[in-house]
Design a protein that fits this description.
Layout (H helix, E strand, L loop, with lengths): L1 H28 L13 H25 L3 H27 L8 E5 L5 E4 L1 H22 L7 H10 L17 H8 L1
Helix pairs in contact: 1-2, 1-3, 2-3, 3-4
């Protein structure tokens, strides 16, 4: 339980750092209102932003690797860490600047490998699933079971085709027509 407590504390703290950076970026690039279409970011800022996002993921992986013993236990802690980080990122934004107004507000979700754009509810829902899966795997390890990833692999493989629905489609900062169509179906 102590490991779980500290990984959650780390995740919530990282979310505050992430939210702070995004608040500053919005003050620079969208000082009036954060709405689509967005202003293009300066190339050097965009490159730094991609590096910052990659560094954030590596930090989440690193702390998970330090806490877990076996590969799948480390993976479970990463799922938990990522999930809490993602949810609390939006909580901190809501506390600090009153955004998002609703879970249906559109956001730039991630920039790697391409910009992911979608409603806030999408990453929050995925984060809840990640936390649930991570807790389930940790529970199995605590009960002495050796986790078998076959069912998890099936879920990930079947969910993967939906990831491109978030990707940027030709107009910087415009909600994806493909994703919009997919959520209407």
């Amino acid at each position: 339980m102590r490991k779980l407590f500290w990984i959650i504390v780390f995740s919530i703290s990282m979310a505050l750092v992430e939210a702070g950076v995004v608040i500053y970026l919005r003050a620079i690039y969208s000082p009036e209102v954060f709405a689509f279409p967005l202003e293009m970011m300066a190339t050097r800022h965009f490159v730094v932003e991609i590096g910052r996002e990659a560094a954030t993921i590596f930090m989440l992986i690193s702390v998970s690797a330090l806490i877990g013993k076996k590969f799948w236990e480390k993976f479970a802690y990463f799922l938990i860490c990522f999930g809490f980080w993602d949810i609390f990122y939006y909580i901190w934004l809501k506390i600090a600047i009153g955004w998002p107004l609703s879970l249906l507000d559109w956001d730039i979700l991630f920039l790697i490998p391409l910009p992911w754009i979608g409603p806030v509810i999408a990453p929050v829902t995925i984060a809840i699933m990640m936390i649930s899966a991570g807790l389930f795997i940790i529970f199995l390890f605590k009960k002495g079971y050796d986790f078998q990833p076959s069912s998890l692999a099936w879920v990930l493989v079947n969910r993967y085709p939906y990831h491109p629905l978030f990707f940027y489609e030709g107009h910087w900062g415009q909600p994806s027509p493909t994703y919009t169509f997919a959520i209407q179906v």
